[in-house]
Amino acid sequence: MPKLVPEHLGRIAEDRKNIIIRRSVENISAIYSDMRKIVMDVKEKGDEVLLAHYKKYKEDIRLDDLEVSPKEIDQAYNTTDAKIVDALKVAATNIEKFHKAQVEKEMWSVEVSEGITAGRLITPLDRAGAYVPGGLASYPSSALMTIIPAKVAGVEEVVACTPPSKGMGVNPTTLVAAHIAGTGQIFKIGGPWAIASMTYGTSIVPKVDKIVGPGNKYVTCAKMIVFGDVDIDSPAGPSEVLIIADETANPRLLAFDFLSQLEHDQDATAVLVTTSETLAEKVSEIIANEIPNLPRKDVIEVALSRYSAILIADTLDEAINFSNSYAPEHLQIVTSDPYAVLPHIKHAGSIFLGPYAPVPVGDYASGTNHVLPTGRCARMFSGLSVDDFIKKPTFQYLSEKGLRSLKDTIITLAEAEGLPVHAMAIKERFS
Q1: Which end of the chain is more exposed for a tag (fewer CB within 10 A), N or C?
Q2: 249 and 201 housed in the same domain
Q3: Residue 91 Cα to chain centre, angstroms
Q4: Domain range for residue 404?
């Protein structure tokens, strides 16, 4: 295959730079009308649509087949390797510990001025929905990442949806992970059918307040369609990593960090920005030598040829500025002092510091969340957290003296906005 040739950042044509920065931004316009039809069908007809869709997997399908039974959970534990169960429990413990540290106190208040107290409550959502990708591949780690933060936040009921396979079975490891995470109900529904079911409710699927979790472009499109009827997390696209490195980094480790991101799918992206031309050349050489030996080489080769790049920066500041423009989902900083770089990072979904923090540690078990903004959405979104499952209503208490001190200000502003009854609500208390 062609070698990924290092490019000097300062000499790249603007068009080429924009292609790298924009990468595979998910375009849902072509599928929007089809996804909307499915969503509206589920909204209007509920289970009838679900049964018709999954009849292809099981001819005599019934409503009971759409929900995972306690017996299926037990069977999942029996068929899942004990080492995998133990690994899921270790990961769950770390994820729970990290997210518990995010929990805020339930209420706070401040005396704005004499007689005026204002504050805020912290209240969890009543019910949340977690979408766990499945089908051709399974992602039990996503069950941990979506369900545990909701439970930590205090959400009473968390339901999960994951696509079934032929015969209406679900990957047993996904079921074990969802059970460990603490979900109440698991439904064998995928794609836009799952998103619509959790949004509007059916006779068996409860209606939720928020839907979170990664998925393909059909899932993302459906989530954007139902936004407003429910809340959603940030739109998700193909996975991506940007690595900032200097001459102290190990080129072989960087090459595998680069390649590990590209094995997700053909639209995945990896970019290395380094101040060392020697390092850039070595990483390029190792990547070219290793790809023929990798199990998913066909996927990696396509991903490598699309939006991936090895860039040489003249200075560390130039590398940092490019990273902030790129706003990566995953950012690795492998420099002599990564903590010195950290304060200069403006936009990134999750940041991995040093040579012993490759992206897979956050994907699985370090405790941070792997549901992250992609496609430059890190400019305005953060990764999934406890905050995604809570509301923060404000409150205020005013004494007569406190209101009197604001009376003239409120009346003046209300009348200036053409809302005289607002002003009268204040005046009447002092008439």
Answers
A1: C
A2: no
A3: 17
A4: 399-430
Whole-structure pTM value:
0.94
Same domain, 295 and 325: yes
**Domain total of the chain:** 3
Given a contact cutoff of 8 angstroms between Cβ atoms, the answer to whether 322 and 311 are in contact is: yes
Residue 141 confidence (pLDDT): 97
Query: Which element (helix H / strand E) includes 112?
Result: strand 107-113
Place of tokens 């068009």: 15
On whether both 302 and 208 belong to a single domain, the answer is no
Answer yes or no: is 380 within a domain: no
DSSP state of 60: T
Query: Of 351, 367, 383, which residue sits at a domain end?
Result: 367
- Nearest of 250, 301, 295 to residue 272 by alpha carbon: 250
Contacts 24+ apart (CB under 8 A), 337-344: 341/244, 341/316, 344/317, 344/320
Q: How many CA atoms within 13 Å lie on the side-chain side of 235?
A: 19
Q: For 168-229, give the secondary structure using H, E and C.
A: HECCHHHHHHHHHHCCCEEECCCHHHHHHHHHHCCCCCCCCCEEECCCCHHHHHHHHHHECC
Under a CB-based contact definition with an 8 Å cutoff, are residues 300 and 291 in contact?
yes
* Strands, sheet with 394-398, edge to edge from the N-terminal-most edge strand: 107-113, 116-121, 394-398
Evaluate whether 255 touches 233 at the Cβ level (below 8 Å): no
Q: In this structure, are 188 and 88 located in the same domain?
A: yes
Strand partners, 350: 330
The per-residue DSSP string of 251-300 comes to: HHHHHHHHHHHHTS-TT-EEEEEES-HHHHHHHHHHHHHHGGGSTTHHHH
Residue keyed to tokens 């996975």 = 239
Residue 391 lies in a domain: no
pLDDT tens readout for residues 47-71: 999 999 999 999 999 999 999 999 9
Residue 375 · residue 214 · CB < 8 Å: no
- 376 is a domain residue: no
- Residue keyed to tokens 């995928």: 190
Q: What is the pLDDT of residues 161-177, one digit of tens each?
A: 999 999 999 999 999 99
Closest CA to 45 of 258, 202, 185, 250: 202
